[in-house]
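Protein modeling request. Please complete all fields; requests missing the sequence field cannot be processed.
Requester role: graduate student
Desired output: 3D structure, token encoding
Chains: 1
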Amino acid sequence: MSVLIYCLPALGWGLMPVISKKAGGDPVEQILGTTVAAFLVAILLNAFMEVHYTTTGIVASLISGIFWAGGQFLQFKALKQGTVSKVMPVSNGTQLVFTGITSGLLLREWRNLQQVAITLILMLVIVFAMVMITKKTTTIAEGTTLDYKTILLICASSMCLVGYVTSTNFLGISGSQIFLPQATAMLASSLVITAMEKKRPRPILVSRNLLTGASWSMANIAIFYTSTRLGVGLSYTISQLCIIVSIIGGIVFLRERKTKSELINTAVGIVLFFASIVGLSQFK
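Delivered output (284 residues):
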């Protein structure tokens, strides 16, 4: 049972971009649908679980939710400009690198110089894997490469998402008290984003993205459960196996085109990515 729980973040986060692409809508509609679903799930959890709130816990959870909303909105914008099988490897890879550095330095999960050196080497392998997966071998398929603007969007998104997953751990907050304040901040932030974008969301497209939020909620609940047992670095590292789910989902369900050479590069990149994740997990 515990093994299944450890796999849920990868499954939920891997399916999330595929579901959002299928559901349609622009980034505002996607972020609204996702946060509404997350808020409803959090209310249900709060109703059926015994929750003890602390001031620090509420503040940390609110900060986490704000970071998430900003990061996820930027990721949705990046997904509008590129395919799932191209955007998500860069997103997952940069999140791994940023989270590894943050958890190592701020959360003191690096214990010796050997661990630091090996972790940095494996991060370089992750960067190489990202290059392999996103490598362009043809110009015939639309969206086969990412421009610098999209890559900057992804990096900014990843920095925010690192704040989402590390802020509660940095302040020593865990358990069910996280979910409702976090989801409240997420929904409030998405409403602020909607107002700033001066966009009138289409209800039908917002409602379609409720499933996106359900997929995210499953992963979110699981990641905060596993991080208390494995640590932020290891649990978040394992969760980034969602790259495999995203790539396969993009190719199979979204019919994203890849040449034979691109499929080979993608397969090599996935193997390198997986090997790096296994390697990182041994030094957490």
